[in-house]
Amino acid sequence: MAAPERWIVRHEAPHADCRVFKVARQRCTHPLDQREGDFFVIHSSDWVLALPVTPEGNLVMVKQWRFGAHALSVEIPGGVMDAGENPLDTAVRETREETGYAGGVVSSLGSASPNPAIQSNHCHFVLLEGVSNGAPRKLDEHEEIEVLCVSPNEALRLVRTGETTHALAELALLRLKEARPSLFTR
Fold it and tell me: Across residues 9-28, what is the average pLDDT?
């Protein structure tokens, strides 16, 4: 079997505007055999998931209602990048707004494609080491967030018990464990 080829987008047209994302219909052609097809792609801004860690080594997490899953979920802070904003600044902003934690040393733990079959955006993972509580929170109109401080091992337990079901948050915890294994040996 031959290696896969990069298809050519011949035409893209708006299909639906859903406020937080847009759906486009793309007409694509295979470069070798000229097969054609219509494909639907979700265009959204990049997202950021923050991993705020206190000086004591606890992870700051949030518990909130998730409309897609119709369930409460324990996750790490995060959100959509504003136009022109970089992932590190977004992580700092979202952590402060959702939890009231701020400060510390900020570094990237990489990024991933949430679902490359149908989405064009990326999710960035950002570590904030040494955050402290005390900044004013600024929740969005429909956000109700409980702030939790747990050990990184407790965060992994929440994944195992199903209290954390956000797949990208789970990946972020794996990135944290790879970057700072000492946090998980306490």
Answer: 95
